[in-house]
Amino acid sequence: MNERAPAPGGLALVQALVNTLDIESGADLLDTPEGLARLGLAAGEAEGARELRESLRAVCLAHAGHPAHRKVTPLGDLLARAPLRVTLDEDGGAARLVPAVEEAPAAVAPLAFRVAAAIAEALVEGTWQRLKACEAPTCHWAYFDRSPAGRGRWCSMAVCGARAKMRRYRANQPPAGADRTAGGAGGRTGSGGLRSPHSEVVQNATGGGPAD
């Protein structure tokens, strides 16, 4: 739902899980057989996946410097139920993370184990903090921040970013009836156009579109 490339490696799974819910429309892919199948889930696993999803969303918001969208189960508590262990290939010495319980073989590991492994690998690679959630309250879509300074705020500059700028632009406009003569509060140019650095954004954002 946004123009950003998917998160790298195992974080793509985390991103896909968070983005199973479209907050603005209320559409939830975990309500559909197709959405469950994409994540390798059975119908009975939907509720647990939703709990994990919202805990992950809260952490992604924290990565972007925002408070949790609502009260959630701490992610650490959920992942504590999915312990991992390191296995080493006897021939090549390759290491990998697998569930630390016999009833959850790696080939069919439950979602919590797969998410835990993805986060562990991302921590090693230094990419975990880059998985964020859009600050727009009607969105909170997960995105991977590839900006050099790591200061991305929205999943989509063309949609959520433009909407935020439009809201700021409108908030800065003088109330109806205020003086809009040249040099007055309205700041019009001689040709009658608003002297605003956001004028182009306003024009581009007028058509809007569903938030990611």
Structural class: mainly alpha
Shape: globular
Helix content: 25-40%
What is the distance, rounded to the nearest whole angstrom, between the alpha carbons of the first and last residues? 5 Å
- Integer average pLDDT: 77
Q: Tally the helices: what do you get?
A: 7
Query: How many β-strand runs?
Result: 4
Unreliable stretches (pLDDT < 50, length at least 5) are 180-212
Largest sheet entry: 2 strands, antiparallel
What order do the SSEs take from the amino end to the carboxyl end, as H and E? HHHHEEHEEHH
The share of residues in extended strands comes to 5-15%
Q: Could you tell me the radius of gyration in angstroms?
A: 22 Å
Strand order of the largest sheet: 1-2
Provide a descriptive summary of the structure in words.
The chain has 212 residues and is mainly alpha-helical. Helix content is 35%, strand content 8%. A two-stranded antiparallel sheet has the order 1-2. Strands 3-4 form a two-stranded antiparallel ribbon. The chain is globular, with a radius of gyration of 22 Å. Residues 180-212 have low confidence and may be disordered.
Summarize, please.
With 212 residues, the protein is mostly helical.
SSE diagram, text form:
Elements: H1 11-18, H2 33-38, H3 46-63, H4 75-79, E1 84-88, E2 95-99, H5 111-125, E3 131-133, E4 142-144, H6 157-171, H7 199-205
Antiparallel strand pairs: 1-2, 3-4
Quick tags:
212 residues; two-stranded antiparallel sheet; 8% strand; 35% helix; mainly alpha; disordered C terminus; globular; two-stranded antiparallel ribbon; 4 strands
